[in-house]
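ARCHIVE CARD
CATEGORY: sequence design from structure
SOURCE FIELD: tokenized fold
FIELD CONTENT:
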């Protein structure tokens, strides 16, 4: 069975999986970060991948991946020496369509000496791609994204010199073969059970939110997706751009389509902080789904669990508000609105939370067979480049399957 190694750099962890051409997750590993939120965050990405690869081979020693594809959070910025400005750190407020230029200026101001001595400045997944291959690039989701990234004229307008503009690597595109795995990286990553060969094709993924939309096949008109992670976004794919308060509309990775999103900042981060609080109080680590089960089962006897229930309810209510904002914008354009929403990320792994969200939002919640949709999106990019599918849209549609569907209870009442 053909398979690829898919890697996603999150805010708080690295996730990796062997995924087959049928969209099956053959092996999975999640490696939490200890340095997240520090200026050295990126320095543990490659060691985390090494540990993940060893775990994947221990689960499936017979697997021989046909390639590697990497996605990650953005616009995180990283110097070759590892200094990191994460996507969720404050940036310089500037009047520009670029998502990157305010962060580029912030990076230059924060790490002036590093900026001056560095020949390159990478975004998050591109930094790991460089460590794997020695090749430099910036992944541009599509030509329509140039203004959202940068143009030389816009960089010059905000004070960068032409020489400084050259620090930013040239653009590559999702599913593009960047280079082969270097000898050094292959030696570092290979496990005792099996190895990744030098020269193994390494493919460009995309920013994590785009990989998740591809992984949930939300790249078709009328598909609604809840991309949950450290932050959360409700996304609607349309054939015309939607505008409105709190709506951010960007081009889809698929030509002539758009993605309208409403962001719910720090929803996952807030729940992760709550989970850590519970673990400190109890002195034991707890599984995500097991904690949700305890929270929902509690009937007010435990104050900490009641706090968790309020937090979960707040997150679901914000999702309902976001859906309402998108519905109103779609109706203004005369677009039909779906009754079903696909979900990805940590929340997707909890049946009770999925049912709670269905009840509160009034939407049927479709959980993919691969809940970490960024990884399935990476598989779509890799298999497209390997020639198994004619294009990304076809790959997404073929690889995605629904594992469970949660239908709202009458009157939004959970059982």
């Amino acid at each position: 069975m053909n398979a690829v190694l898919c890697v996603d750099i999150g805010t708080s962890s690295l996730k990796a999986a062997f995924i087959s051409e049928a969209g099956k997750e053959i092996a999975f590993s999640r490696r939490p970060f200890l340095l997240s939120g520090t200026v050295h965050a990126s320095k543990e990405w490659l060691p985390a991948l090494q540990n993940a690869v060893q775990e994947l081979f221990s689960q499936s020693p017979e697997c021989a991946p046909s390639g590697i594809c990497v996605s990650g959070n953005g616009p995180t910025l990283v110097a070759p020496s590892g200094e990191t400005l994460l996507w969720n750190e404050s940036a310089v407020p500037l009047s520009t369509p670029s998502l990157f230029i305010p962060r580029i200026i912030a990076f230059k101001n924060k790490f002036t000496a590093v900026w001056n001595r560095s020949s390159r400045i990478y975004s998050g997944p591109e930094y790991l791609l460089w460590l794997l291959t020695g090749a430099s690039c910036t992944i541009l989701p599509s030509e329509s994204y140039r203004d959202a990234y940068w143009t030389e004229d816009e960089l010059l307008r905000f004070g960068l010199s032409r020489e400084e503009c050259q620090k930013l690597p040239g653009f590559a595109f999702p599913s593009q073969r960047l280079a082969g795995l270097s000898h050094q990286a292959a030696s570092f990553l290979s496990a005792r059970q099996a190895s990744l060969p030098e020269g193994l094709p390494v493919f460009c993924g995309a920013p994590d939110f785009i990989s998740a939309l591809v992984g949930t096949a939300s790249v078709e008109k009328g598909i609604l997706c809840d991309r949950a992670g450290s932050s959360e976004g409700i996304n609607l794919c349309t054939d015309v751009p939607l505008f409105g308060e709190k709506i951010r509309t960007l081009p889809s990775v698929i030509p002539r389509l758009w993605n309208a999103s409403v962001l719910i900042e720090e929803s996952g981060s807030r729940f992760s902080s709550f989970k850590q609080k519970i673990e400190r109080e109890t002195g034991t680590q707890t599984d995500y789904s097991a904690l949700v089960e305890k929270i929902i089962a509690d009937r007010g006897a435990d104050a900490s669990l009641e706090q968790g229930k309020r937090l979960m309810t707040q997150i679901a209510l914000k999702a309902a508000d976001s859906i309402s904002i998108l519905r109103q914008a779609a109706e203004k354009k005369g677009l039909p609105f779906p009754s079903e929403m696909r979900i990805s990320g940590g929340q997707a792994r909890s049946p009770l939370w999925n049912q709670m969200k269905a009840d509160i939002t009034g939407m049927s919640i479709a959980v993919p067979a691969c809940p970490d949709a960024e990884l399935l999106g990476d598989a779509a990019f890799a298999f497209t480049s390997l020639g198994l599918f004619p294009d990304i849209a076809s790959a997404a549609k073929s690889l995605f399957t629904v594992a469970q569907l949660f239908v709202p209870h009458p009157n939004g009442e959970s059982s």
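CARD ANNOTATION: Residues 303-332 form the longest helix (30 residues). The chain has a mean pLDDT of 92.
SHELF: design records, drawer C
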